[in-house]
Amino acid sequence: MKDDGKNWKNARDGRHDSPASHSAHPIFPPRGDYQTLLSYQKAEVVYDLTFRFAHKYLGKGDRTVDQMIQSARSSKQNILEGSKAALTSKETEIKLTNVGRASLEELLADYRDYLRVRDHAIWDKDSKEAQFVRRLGRKTPYTYELYREFVETRPPEVLANIAICRIHQANYLIDQQLRHLEKDFLNQGGLRERMFKARLAHRNQPPKP
Known about the structure:
Helix content: 55-70%
Strand content: under 5%
Number of domains: 1
Radius of gyration: 20 Å
Structural class: mainly alpha
Number of helices: 7
Distance between the termini: 55 Å
Oligomer: single chain
């Protein structure tokens, strides 16, 4: 996948809760609409898969049910909150996006544990199964409906491997997103720096005749 900074942005699937706000003011960059982030879309599907997987294949009272669902939810919610925080704090956006990334790592470990302790194989990244799931992940609109049939008809070890493939792709996109955010922060600074630059630019304007 080409790392050109565009893979995680501007992928609309027809869902609109609220439009992105755009400000011409130099202090405030445009606020990102989280639903256009590919990283959020992938994390949302991981949550939908995990919710069904955990309730269907893990026993009632098993603490792993809540842990897996919470990790999946934490990932998408932190990406969402980070995007919303972007208006006033690039630092907060980076921090929350990192939390979302870490939550996916926890979930990934849980899926691997599920397969390992039951003596099920984890698909090699170059296996035909993993390649099929990656191709499926390129379809648009990207929603849980792409996987509904698999969830309803395939055994749990297949679903766990599908989830692992989806988590890897989500992590890849989040990593791209974080590199972009960190670059922006280095180039533009945080809110206080932007406010200082704006005040300085205002003071340096020539007086109007």
